[in-house]
Amino acid sequence: MSINFSAAEDEPVDLGAMTETMFREAAEELARVINQIKAGKFDEARSTQSAVKGLKQAYLQLMEERGRFDKLRKQITGTVGATSLDFHAARDEVGRRLARLRDAGPG
Question: Do residues 48 and 33 touch, judged by C-beta distance below 8 A?
């Protein structure tokens, strides 16, 4: 399966990098608020808690949708319920078993 993008189309978004950036920014914000709480300023504690909760919900939804997408992709490519086959490992295993049968001798 190949995907070709024409010059007029935007490139796909790198969700991994985007998620990493969001979590890094959230962690920085959380660290800033923790420092403010330690300094006795409790103004932003509630707003940060709701922001972190929203970020967590968004992440869980993203992962759920990604799972659905991967399932659909596997159905389209015909690899549902199976992983890719390692023919080299299978050949080695067959050879190993044949060698054991030969070593066992007749009968």
Answer: yes
Half-sphere exposure of residue 2: CA atoms within 13 angstroms, side-chain side: 2
Strand (E) or helix (H) holding 77:
helix 45-77
d(CA 33, CA 38): 9
Q: How many CA atoms lie within 13 A of 106 on its CB side?
A: 0
In this prediction, residue 57 has a pLDDT band, given cuts at 50, 70 and 90, of confident
Q: Which residues contact 46 (CB under 8 A, 6 or more apart)?
A: none
**pTM, entire model:** 0.39
